[in-house]
Design a protein that fits this description.
mainly alpha, MgtE N-terminal fold, CBS-domain, 2 domains, three-stranded mixed β-sheet, 16 helices, globular, disordered C terminus
């Protein structure tokens, strides 16, 4: 039985997207039981790969400690996507349990309609003032190894976007040089209220795979990645009505998925029975 649990952990750690597809077919109680018995670092990528409504139902079925552990292990964008489908007052309870930075970013992004650019902007970008020296900016980049930092964003004292500086330019410049002398205009800028369909048609995507997102007055709030935009539009337009055979065709043989599903169910079989979630427990 312990071997089944080890195999389940190994599978979800190595194939989070595949595991997510299988778990979406299980009952909420069974899926929640599995998440409860997995380390957050291994379970979070699986939760992120699930459809947001399905992931939210699992969060609701978990206690606050387990749900917060998973949310904290995901990125802000993924956390917000799930929290959009959690009803109040549980949503507020979960947000209040997050780190101050993540909670503030979540509240901001949740304030935008989910079909607009602002809802899917990634606030985790490296932002510096225009009077920052190159050496200091590089230190910021090295101090945030988890962030994609091909470009850094230069703002003024009011957080208005002034320009961007590519990492390669930064590396070649003298460490005392001001970023104001190195920055250039971005290929394009996306307003927070722009519909996602409009953002997809922006001509700047031919030149870049990431664009800054600004509020009124050019106040920088984050960036939008081309991959995230494509994923969001795909999910919204597809409706996720594809059958398993259609969705998995060309990826893996049906027999593999039967094996995967069986493995996860074996893992569930060794877990203690899931207790129903009562209204008073939420």
């Amino acid at each position: 039985m312990a071997e089944a649990g080890t195999l389940t952990l190994a599978f979800v750690s190595s194939h989070p997207v595949d595991a997510a597809k299988v778990l979406e077919r299980l009952s909420v109680a069974d899926a929640a039981a599995l998440f409860t018995n997995l380390p957050a670092r291994a379970a979070a990528p699986v939760l992120e790969a699930m459809l947001s409504p399905a992931a939210a139902r699992i969060l609701v079925a978990l206690d606050d400690q387990a749900a917060l552990g998973l949310l904290s292990a995901t990125g802000v964008q993924s956390a917000v996507a799930m929290l959009r489908h959690v009803r109040e007052p549980r949503r507020t309870t979960l947000i209040e349990g997050l780190s101050t930075t993540t909670a503030l970013a979540s509240r901001m992004l949740l304030g935008y309609p989910d079909d607009t650019v602002g809802a899917w902007a990634d606030p985790e970008a490296i932002v510096v003032g225009s009077d920052t020296a190159t050496g200091e900016a590089l230190a910021r980049v090295r101090g945030n190894p988890g962030l994609e930092a091909n470009e850094i964003y230069v703002v003024d004292e009011s957080q208005r976007l002034q320009g961007i500086v590519g990492l390669q330019v930064l590396l070649r410049a003298h460490e005392t040089m001001s970023l104001a002398a190195l920055m250039r205009p971005p290929a394009g800028v996306l307003p927070v209220a722009m519909p996602l369909s409009g953002a997809a048609a922006h001509p700047a995507w031919k030149q870049t795979n990431i664009m800054p997102v600004v509020e009124r007055g050019d106040r920088f709030i984050g960036v939008l990645h081309a991959a995230k935009l494509a994923e969001t539009l795909s999910r919204g337009h597809s409706g996720h009505t594809d059958t398993p055979d259609e969705t998995l065709s060309g990826m893996l043989a049906r027999g593999y998925w039967d094996t995967v599903s069986g493995l996860l169910r074996v893992g569930l079989a060794v877990l203690p029975p899931a207790q129903p979630v009562l209204p008073g427990d939420k």
